[in-house]
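Dear Dr. H.,

I hope your travels went smoothly. While you were away I took the liberty of generating a structure for the chain from your last submission, since the lab meeting agenda had it listed for discussion. I wanted you to have the full record in hand beforehand rather than looking at slides cold. The sequence, exactly as received, is reproduced here:
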Amino acid sequence: MATIRRLRGRWQAQVRRKGLAPRAKSFDAKSDAERWARNLEADIDRCGNLPDTRLAERMTVRELLARYLMEITPTKRSASTETYRVKALMKRDIAHRTLAMLSSADIASYRDERLKVVSTSSVIRELNTIAHAVDVARKEWGVHMVQNPVRMIRRPAPPRGRDRRLNGDEEQLLLAAADAGRSPYMRPLIILAIETAMRQGEMLSLTWNDVDLDRRIAHLDMTKNGESRDVPLSSRALDALGVLKQQQIDERVVPSTKSGVQQAWGHLRTRAKLTDLHFHDLRHEAVSRLLERGLNVIETATISGHKELRMLQRYSHLRAEDLVAKLA
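The corresponding predicted structure, in token form, is as follows:
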């Protein structure tokens, strides 16, 4: 049984077990001392020995994230975006907590406060990053924690996937707005997105060495899911590539940057009066059209690069009127 006592203005918890060296720690709050003692006794009962909690007691969440940023983040394909996220997390109030004192209640409070100012998707990504950092610390860095508190809380429900499709003459409006703009790449880029279901980043990463016009194949060496894939090219996609070939200035198929495309897209959709349309919606449109053409889910996933068919379901927003003929 642990001993909790008042000592020099603080609360000291002491745990003694036969055959093990006693452990003691002082806290400002009695409840913290009691919780530390309960967790330590539970560890002894489970493991049969006294775990070394000193590293968890010294390391703050900020120090954990700093090491994670240095050792783990650079190994990820999403390193640039995760770097931004981790650096922001290191400035939050929760970053001052030591790992030994970090509780599921702390994480839940953090979740609720963040939901007031950012989207559900952002909160989920932040929680996933903290959870992974704690997992790495427990499994690889010798940081003893009874459990990962981030895994113990209820996650926010993920947002419903967008189901925006191009309606009526919206595709023509987009292309006309592209023709009226200053960027010569936007019209063929829009057509490629609709015809191939490639992501914007995948199209921007293409070089002419990746494109075989004779075989009508575009090879993506590295994609979002970490695998390469070959994308078949329709006649309309080949025509768009032909336009880009005439404008070739270097080895890139689309000699532009992500920020350049984003800026051009913003102006373009304003001219087209389609301000609610995201560039990624063109991928939704492309996948839906592939399914409407009669390709099955496996064939469509092969083109789009979806590893999990349940994820493909988010994009396959088929028009009911287009399915009537099949039912009749």
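Two observations you may find useful: DSSP finds 15 helices and six strands in the chain. The chain has a mean pLDDT of 88.

With kind regards,
E. W.
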